[in-house]
Design goal:
The chain has 290 residues and is an alpha/beta fold. It is 39% helix and 20% strand. Strand 7, helix 5 and strand 8 form a beta-alpha-beta unit. Bound molecules: NADP nicotinamide-adenine-dinucleotide phosphate. NADP nicotinamide-adenine-dinucleotide phosphate binds next to helix 5 and helix 9.
Length: 290
């Protein structure tokens, strides 16, 4: 794509941003779909988020993604916020409007599209959710809204899980999320669970780590989904597979949260064929590393 006087800019704000794969997603889509846009990473120092959003608005940036650690802080810089993003308390996508930016959370819908594409069912499932951070909060909302029967939310810090559980249960007006201390995983009733790994444990370079290494825990899991995608196969995924379950990493979630942002910015729908092309390009970063 030739950059010229009509090129529109989108980008990512975060700290750090050096390892992001989002430019691969958006610049590939722009090329495939013939849109005259370019996507760039912008490293924003702490305390400068408001300046960054104001500056982006003044420069006419079409849209921004927001990553760690600014997904909550950025809410104070918005003209408008999507009701679901407000409920989740985290925004990862800003869309330009007349008066400023409107904030959305595409992580949750991205995870849903990823799970759908892997034919993972949520409705009626007994679930285990590891973690109670920003991503796990979105997962808990998604699964409660999509009809999970019961979700055991395990976290190292119990009060965070209690806080998220109370919010989500209130949001869906039903007792679905049950907070637990991570170390008490042994008291989860026997059953056949869909488990989602939403902590940051096991992320490269700490690839040998996992929050639980007891095989008895993994025997209860029929499907494990790790939000982490680097490494390609986490320890959590390895244990799930070794105990007979299916396991998936978070790369498709990353792909689809990006695609949804792209669709919002450009008011288009991305075909599954184009999604697959971008996915193969992303996957090559992990599988061809040697
Ligand atoms: P976060 O808000 O910082 O939450 C981190 C979570 O990990 C908390 O529950 C924290 O527990 C737990 N944790 C951290 N270190 C731990 C340890 N040593 N032992 C036990 N628990 C520990 O992070 P986040 O934004 O939710 O992200 C979580 C993970 O999801 C990251 O790996 C991120 O890369 C991934 N993610 C993937 C996608 C995707 O598109 N695939 C999107 C978003 C996030 P405490 O509450 O006790 O501190």
């Amino acid at each position: 794509m030739e950059i010229n006087g009509r090129t529109r800019t989108c980008g990512l704000i975060g700290h750090p941003v050096e390892h992001t794969l989002s430019p691969v997603i958006h610049n590939t889509l722009a090329g495939l779909m013939g849109h005259n846009i370019v996507y760039l990473p912008f490293h924003v120092e702490s305390g400068r988020v408001q300046d960054a959003v104001k500056g982006a608005d003044a420069l006419g940036l079409l849209g921004l993604n927001v990553t760690v650690p600014y997904k909550s802080e950025v809410i104070g810089c918005l003209e408008e916020i999507d009701p679901l993003a407000r409920k989740i308390g985290a925004v990862n996508t800003l869309v330009r409007t007349e008066g400023g930016y409107k904030g959305y959370n595409t992580d949750m819908e991205g995870l849903y599209r990823a799970m759908t594409s892997e034919k993972i069912k949520i409705a009626g499932e007994q679930m285990i959710l590891l973690g109670a951070g920003g991503a796990a909060r979105a997962v808990a909302y998604l699964c409660a809204l999509k009809g999970a029967e019961r979700i055991y939310m395990l976290n190292r810090t119990l009060d965070k899980a209690q806080e998220v559980a109370a919010e989500v249960n209130h949001g869906v007006d039903k007792e679905v999320v049950f907070p637990m201390l991570l170390s008490e995983y042994g008291s989860i009733p026997n059953g056949d669970y869909l488990a989602i790994q939403g902590t940051s444990v096991g992320l490269a370079p700490h690839v040998e780590e996992t929050v639980i290494s007891d095989r008895a825990f993994y025997e209860k899991i029929h499907t494990g989904f790790d939000l982490i995608y680097n490494p390609w196969e986490t320890k959590f995924m390895q244990y799930v597979r070794e105990c007979g379950g299916r396991a998936y990493n978070g790369l498709k979630m990353l792909l689809y949260q990006g695609i949804i942002a792209y669709e919002l910015w450009n008011k288009v729908s991305v075909s599954e064929e184009n999604a697959q092309i971008v996915y193969e390009r992303l996957k090559a970063y992990f599988t061809q590393k040697g």
